[in-house]
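Chain A, query sequence.
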Amino acid sequence: MPEIFDGLITIKKIVREPGERAKVAVESYDDRIDPVGACVGMKGSRIHGIVRELKNENIDVINWTSNIQLLIQRSLTPAKITSMSVDSEGKHASIYLKPDQVSLAIGKRGANIKLASELTGYELDVYRDSEDEEEEFDVDLEEFSDEIDGWVIDALKKIGCDTARSVMRMSPFELEKEPIWKKKL
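Chain A, predicted structure.
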């Protein structure tokens, strides 16, 4: 590739899980050159031959940066990170993702996260974002009208529980002591 030969683009690091995936970090010394785009080529023309030679091994080409958070984010492609906390001294990062992004971050047989860890030099731990779990239960009780009798939904609303989350926050003891249940029974 002429840009690499001329020194306009540098390959900073390559990590590989043979037969599965490779990650290549590249950097450009010319602001006018997109290092990832130059390495991949139009419609993948430059990298396609390499992929074919490696028996269709996935190759992620990422833009190198000295900003470790951004590098970690880029290295976990194709997953989209919600948030992260980085311990620079211990070379450790905790990454939080939406539940549907966790498997993308980990990858087939753990290859994606392993390579991202090797590329960045950080131990990476992936967690499901707990806010998403709470949003899951933030559903209006009317949504359950086909499964829960109307009088139960009305009774729950009378005690201030109008969403699934509000019901989940109450202990069974608190729910049981409410006088509204005695009226129906």
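The mean pLDDT is 81. Strands lie at 9-17, 21-28, 58-63, 81-87, 92-97, 123-128.
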